Amino acid sequence: MMDPTFSRPKRSLSQNFLVDPNIQKKIVAALSASPTEVVVEVGPGRGALTHHLVDVVSKLVLIELDHDLAAMWSEKYRDREDVTVLQGDVLTIPFWESVGDPSRTHVVGNIPYNITSPIIFRLLERPRPQSILLTVQNEVAQRITAPVGSKEYGALSVGVRSIASAEILFRIGRGAFNPKPGVDSAVIRIVPVRPEPLSIEEELRLRTLVRSAFQWRRKQLKRILRDHEALKIPPELLEDVASRAGIDLTDRPERLSPEAFLRLASTLP
Question: How far apart are CA 135 and CA 131, in angstroms?
């Protein structure tokens, strides 16, 4: 069985392997996982982070979509009870079944840039981990952490920051990867809020509100709440909703902070 360290990148899987050892160590240090904690690594690839994690955490769960790489990792760690290898798509496999307590688990990964948002929201589904540390396209990191009212601020910003904190830790140049991607990258830390700020039903309502609002981001909130097919708030209720949520109906969606969206979602009939 070939060593995964020498696997060739597959364009079909959008593989860009992190090859700079200093950046690898910097990411693992930023994860701050203790020897008693569990780490889930999304897309171990050639093992850029795996080699730095395997002997320093209590359990390591590897999720690898690439059949060949998953087989190599399974073979490499076949005698290790503290390493679990899952072959499959992180968007669909029930990976938390391999973890005792997700709330005490860290997630780390250099994830494919073409499906960054779906992976982030998958990782933020309940039960949520203790922390998430991801290498993502720099543009996506900017959108997640964008200031309220900026051009980059949108549904992704609110969707993440209404249930978690998010910060960019550092940026990574293209030369740190093989093959070299066409964009720069950034490492972002996402920490879910505890206790959960919303019930599951309220989160679904918030998601519908945010998606609807930014589909019509150039329109005023009054029209969005009243006319959007997914909302249809009766006109006679709008002033009361706005008053209880502390919002201005003449504002556009990008003027509302994640906290304001939370208040608005909780007051909708």
Answer: 14
